[in-house]
Design goal:
The structure holds 2 protein chains of 2 kinds. Chain A is mostly helical. Chain A has a single domain, classed as Helix Hairpins (Orthogonal Bundle). Chain A is elongated. The termini of chain A are far apart. By secondary structure, chain B is an all-alpha fold. In chain B, helix 1 runs antiparallel to helix 2 and helix 2 runs antiparallel to helix 3. Chain B folds into 2 domains: 94 residues, Up-down Bundle (Four Helix Bundle (Hemerythrin (Met), subunit A)), CATH 1.20.120.1200; 47 residues, no CATH class. The longest helix of chain B is centred in the last third of the chain and has 29 residues. Chain B is built from 8 helices and no strands. Classes of the chains: A mainly alpha, B mainly alpha. The interface between A and B is large, with 76 and 95 residues.
């Protein structure tokens, strides 16, 4: 296994999470915002794996599975909702969806 | 040792670079492909830390299944949509950039300070021992189906709920787009939506 200190991986995960936050705040396209949420979940997975390495047992790696399951469920439901909204409004721009009623 | 640093550096540049490029890519398909690249980089990070099974799962499920789902939806809705550049909330993007820079500074500061968490386990050597003795997959299986058996079973309820929810949503799409007895559903779809 690597000699690279865990702190480097934690820094990378933190930076990836930051990029995800900024992406969600800047972009407007609903699908693109969704992809940045996936990026944030990935960054958290890297945190889990790095902490598992620091702790010295596999529980952190098991927790990644639960994040994965939640991410899969979230993507499926979210994309179905985006599809419905895009068909009715003919737009993916999240600013158009502000009335919760159409 | 030195090779490890080289691999880490290349992984760092690819992962963070493609994530940053995601912000500036105009085309949604480009964003999706950059996210795939970033996820492959993260799989390398998992490999470096001895999480072999997680690395494989990362590529199969994230870069494979989930991103294909994203690309399907992008293609279904049309790839040539332009993103609006006006700001209903004035100064939103500038504020987001400033807050993002602030968050980055905080992350880097914490990383520079170092994480001071008390770990009780055996550290890296313990993981190496598990990986070389039983193997990564067997070790994960023992934990997952031992201590985490109940949460594991509960996730199946979550997945069933998601599947049922999507089926309900998809049914309501059909009831809007496909009135009974139509011969050309696509034409009708546009009529109803318009």
């Amino acid at each position: 296994m690597t000699e690279v200190p865990p702190g480097y991986f934690l820094a990378l995960a933190g930076l990836l999470f930051t990029v995800g936050v900024v992406g969600v705040l800047i972009r407007r396209n609903a699908i693109v915002m969704f992809m940045f949420i996936e990026l944030m979940l990935n960054a958290v997975n890297l945190f889990f794996v790095t902490f598992a390495r620091m702790q010295g047992n596999l529980e952190g790696q098991v927790l990644v599975f639960f994040v994965l399951v939640v991410a899969a469920a979230e993507v499926v439901v979210g994309l179905a909702l985006i599809l419905l909204i895009a068909r009715r409004r003919a737009s993916l721009d999240v600013d158009n969806v502000r009335l919760l009623k159409w | 040792m030195s090779l490890d640093i080289v691999v880490f550096g290349a992984m760092f540049v690819v992962t963070l670079g493609s994530a940053l490029a995601m912000i500036f890519a105009r085309n949604a398909v480009h964003v999706a492909l950059l996210l795939v690249l970033s996820q492959v980089g993260l799989a390398v990070a998992f490999l470096l830390q001895g999480a072999f099974f997680i690395a494989a799962v990362q590529i199969i499920i994230y870069a494979g299944a989930i991103m294909v789902l994203f690309l399907f939806v992008i293609m279904l809705l049309g790839v040539d949509r332009r993103e609006a550049l006006d700001e209903p909330l004035r100064g939103q993007r500038a504020t987001a950039l400033i807050l993002g820079a602030l968050l980055t500074a905080q992350v880097l500061y914490v990383a520079w300070l170092g994480v001071d968490i008390t770990f009780t386990g055996g550290g890296q050597e313990a993981i190496e021992a598990i990986n070389s003795e039983d193997g990564n997959v067997l070790g994960i299986g023992r934990v997952l189906f031992g201590r985490y058996l109940l949460p594991f079973e509960v996730t199946s309820v979550l997945l069933i709920t998601a599947v049922v929810g999507v089926m309900v949503l998809a049914r309501s799409i059909q009831s809007v787009t496909l009135p009974t007895g139509t011969e050309e559903p696509t034409k009708k779809t546009e009529d109803v939506v318009a």
